C-alpha cells in the first residue's frame, strides 16, 4: 500500500499522476458534499417540525418569539465555542485569494449547524451558503489530509463549493460557474475537470439518489422575448437598484447592531425578535421562502402584497444576518427579485395583455436579475434559473436582464454582497485575487509598539539628548496621566526654539493637533494620510480612546513592509509554477 508520503512524491514526479489523484479526490468531495446536503435537509426538516408543529403555539403571539429564541441559541453557541469569528462565503473567497485556499474548517461546519437553527426558527435566510461552506470544508479537509500545495488547496475547495451549489439547486453547471465568478475568479484546464466532476457527483447523490428537490418551477410561455426586450431592460434596471438596496440595507443594519451596547450573545435574539414581529403579520417572509416564490410565479399575489413583501423581505433578511444570524443571501435575493418581477409583470401585462407574458415570467426573470446584482455573478444567475426550469425560451430575456442588473448594481455600488465584507476588512479582491497589496496589510501588524516618548514637562535639552541617543527625529508627547497630548519633531525644534533656549518646555514646542492612525486601518489609508499631511510618522491610538497611545508607524515602516510583502508574493508565485 502507498503511504501519504509516497503519494506526495509520485505527484511531484509525475504531474499526470497528480491530475488523476485530484480527479479521484474530486469524486469523493462531490459524494460527501451531496451526502452532507442530504443530511442538512433532513436535520432542517426535523428542527422546523420541532419549533412549528404545535398549532397552538404557532397560532398565538408566541410565534413572535420563535425567531428570537433561534437567535439566542445562535448567540449562545458562538459564545460558548470560545471563538467569536464567523465563517461564511466571504471567508472562503478570502481564503482562496489570500491564504492559499486555507479556511477555518471547524468554523465553517459550525456555521452550517447555526444556519439550521436560524432557518428552522424563521430566520429570513437561504440554505445555499451553508451548502457552499459544507462543501468547502470537506474539500479543505481532504487538502489538509494530503498536505496539498496552495494551488491544489484552491482547487479542492472549489470542488466543494461547486458541489454545494450544484446539490442545493440541482444545477451542476451553475455550481461550476459560481466557483469561477465568485470563489476563484478564474478557471484553468487542470482545475476545471475536478470541479466539474465534483459538481456532477454532488448532484447525482443529492438529487438523483436521495431526491433532494430545490424550488419547483412550472413552464412559462414567453410571448415575444425579443419584442419585449425594452421591458426586460427596465426590469433589469429595477433589479439592479433593488440589489444595491438589499446590500446597503444589510450593512446599515449590521453597523447598527455592531454599535448596539448589548452583549454579542443577545444581538441575534434582538434581530430575531424584529423578524418575529414582521413574520407575525406577514408569515411569508419567514424561513427560506421557496413556497412563497412558487406562489408568486403562478400569479397568486396582488401588486400591493408583492411590494410589501419585497420591502419586508429585505428588512427581515438584513435583521437576521446583520444581527449575527446564520444563513445565505442567494435565495433571499431571488425572493426579492420574484416579488419585484411579479409586481412589474402584473403592471406590464395589464397594459399590454396580448403582447406580453404573464406576470410569473417576469417574476422568474426578476429572480435571476436580482441575484446577478447582489452576487455580481450574472452567468451563475442565468444558469441556476435555466437548470431549474430547463426552458430555453427563458435564456434571452434572462441574460439581458441579468447583464443590465449587474451593470446597474456595479455602477451604483462597487462591491457585491460578498466582497463588501472583505472591503470593510481592507481587502479589494477581484477575480479571486487581491488587487492592492497595501489594502491587505494592517497598521497593527506593522507599527512599532516599543515607542520612545517624551513628557510635556520635559525641556528642549531633554529632547536633544533623546534624539542623539535614539537617532529618531520625532516623538509622541505624553501628559502627566500618560495620555497622548501631542507630537514633537526635529522640525519643531528648528522652528520654535531659538539658540540657547534649551529650557523651553516641550508643551510649548510640540504640535498638539495630532494626526493619528488606528490599528485596524490598512496601510494604503495611512499612506494617503502621510501624503496629504506631509508628515513622516503617525502615533497609533485606540479607537475607544484617541489619547491612549498604542504605538507609532512611519513612512519607512510602510515601505519596508511593502517591499517584504512583494518579495513574498513573488516567491509564492514561483512556488505555484
Automatic annotation (TrEMBL):
Record carries keyword Lipoprotein: no
UniProt KW keywords: Amino-acid biosynthesis, CBS domain, Chloride, Chloride channel, Ion channel, Ion transport, Membrane, Methionine biosynthesis, Transmembrane, Transmembrane helix, Transport
InterPro entries named among the record's database cross-references: CBS_dom, CBS_dom_sf, Cl-channel_core, ClC, ClC-type_chloride_channel
Annotated membrane topology: Multi-pass membrane protein
Transmembrane residue ranges: 21-40, 60-80, 156-180, 192-210, 230-253, 265-282, 303-324, 330-352, 359-386
CDD domains in the record: Voltage_gated_ClC (cd00400)
Compartments where located: Membrane
Domain of life assignment: Archaea
Keyword Hydrolase set for record: no
UniProt domain CBS: residue ranges: 447-504, 510-568
PANTHER family on file: CHLORIDE CHANNEL PROTEIN CLC-E
Name of the protein in its database record: CIC family chloride channel protein
Organism: Methanococcoides alaskense
Source species taxonomy: Archaea, Methanobacteriati, Methanobacteriota, Stenosarchaea group, Methanomicrobia
Amino acid at each position: 500500500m502507498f503511504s501519504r508520503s509516497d503519494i506526495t512524491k509520485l505527484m511531484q514526479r509525475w504531474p499526470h499522476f497528480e491530475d488523476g489523484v485530484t480527479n479521484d479526490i474530486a469524486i469523493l468531495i462531490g459524494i460527501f458534499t451531496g451526502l452532507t446536503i442530504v443530511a442538512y435537509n433532513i436535520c432542517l426538516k426535523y428542527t422546523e417540525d420541532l419549533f412549528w408543529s404545535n398549532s397552538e403555539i404557532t397560532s398565538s403571539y408566541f410565534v413572535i418569539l420563535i425567531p428570537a429564541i433561534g437567535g439566542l441559541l445562535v448567540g449562545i453557541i458562538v459564545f460558548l465555542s470560545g471563538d467569536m469569528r464567523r465563517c461564511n462565503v466571504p471567508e472562503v473567497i478570502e481564503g482562496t485569494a489570500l491564504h492559499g485556499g486555507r479556511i477555518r474548517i471547524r468554523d465553517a461546519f459550525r456555521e452550517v449547524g447555526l444556519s439550521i437553527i436560524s432557518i428552522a426558527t424563521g430566520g429570513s435566510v437561504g440554505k445555499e451558503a451553508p451548502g457552499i461552506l459544507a462543501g468547502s470544508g470537506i474539500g479543505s479537509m481532504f487538502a489538509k489530509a494530503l498536505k496539498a500545495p496552495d494551488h491544489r488547496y484552491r482547487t479542492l475547495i472549489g470542488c466543494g463549493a461547486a458541489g454545494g451549489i450544484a446539490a442545493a439547486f440541482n444545477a451542476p453547471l451553475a455550481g461550476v460557474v459560481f466557483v469561477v465568478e465568485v470563489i476563484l475568479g478564474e478557471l484553468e484546464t487542470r482545475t476545471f475537470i475536478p470541479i466539474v466532476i465534483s459538481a456532477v457527483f454532488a448532484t447525482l447523490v443529492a438529487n438523483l439518489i436521495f431526491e433532494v428537490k430545490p424550488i419547483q418551477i412550472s413552464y412559462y410561455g414567453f410571448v415575444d422575448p425579443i419584442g419585449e426586450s425594452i421591458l426586460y431592460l427596465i426590469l433589469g434596471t429595477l433589479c439592479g437598484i433593488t440589489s444595491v438596496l438589499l446590500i446597503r440595507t444589510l450593512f446599515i443594519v449590521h453597523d447598527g447592531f455592531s454599535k448596539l451596547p448589548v452583549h454579542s450573545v443577545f444581538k441575534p435574539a434582538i434581530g430575531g425578535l424584529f423578524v418575529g414581529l414582521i413574520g407575525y403579520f406577514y408569515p411569508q417572509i419567514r424561513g427560506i421562502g421557496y413556497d412563497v416564490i412558487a406562489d408568486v410565479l403562478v400569479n397568486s399575489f396582488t401588486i400591493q402584497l408583492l411590494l410589501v413583501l419585497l420591502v419586508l423581505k429585505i428588512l427581515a433578511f438584513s435583521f437576521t444576518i446583520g444581527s449575527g444570524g446564520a444563513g445565505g443571501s442567494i435565495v433571499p435575493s431571488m425572493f426579492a427579485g420574484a416579488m419585484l418581477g411579479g409586481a412589474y409583470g402584473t403592471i406590464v401585462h395589464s397594459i399590454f395583455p396580448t403582447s406580453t407574458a404573464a406576470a410569473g415570467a417576469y417574476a422568474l426573470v426578476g429572480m435571476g436579475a436580482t441575484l446577478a446584482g447582489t452576487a455580481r455573478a450574472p452567468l451563475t444567475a442565468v444558469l441556476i434559473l435555466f437548470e431549474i426550469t430547463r426552458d430555453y425560451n427563458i435564456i434571452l430575456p434572462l441574460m439581458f436582464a441579468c447583464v443590465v442588473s449587474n451593470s446597474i448594481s456595479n455602477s451604483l455600488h462597487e462591491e457585491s454582497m460578498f466582497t463588501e465584507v472583505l472591503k470593510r476588512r481592507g481587502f479589494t479582491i477581484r477575480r479571486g485575487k487581491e488587487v492592492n497589496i497595501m489594502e491587505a496589510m494592517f497598521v497593527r501588524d506593522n507599527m512599532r509598539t516599543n515607542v520612545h516618548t517624551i513628557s510635556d514637562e520635559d525641556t528642549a535639552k531633554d529632547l536633544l539628548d533623546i534624539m542623539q541617543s535614539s537617532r529618531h527625529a520625532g516623538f509622541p508627547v505624553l501628559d502627566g496621566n500618560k495620555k497622548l497630548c501631542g507630537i514633537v519633531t526635529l522640525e519643531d525644534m528648528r522652528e520654535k526654539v531659538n539658540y540657547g533656549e534649551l529650557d523651553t518646555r516641550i508643551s510649548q514646542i510640540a504640535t498638539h493637533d495630532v494626526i493619528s492612525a488606528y490599528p485596524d486601518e490598512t496601510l494604503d489609508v495611512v499612506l494617503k494620510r502621510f501624503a496629504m499631511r506631509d508628515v513622516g510618522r503617525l502615533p497609533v491610538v485606540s479607537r475607544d480612546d484617541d489619547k491612549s497611545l498604542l504605538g507609532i508607524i512611519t513612512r519607512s515602516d510602510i515601505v519596508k513592509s511593502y517591499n517584504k510583502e512583494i518579495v513574498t508574493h513573488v516567491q509564492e508565485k514561483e512556488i505555484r509554477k
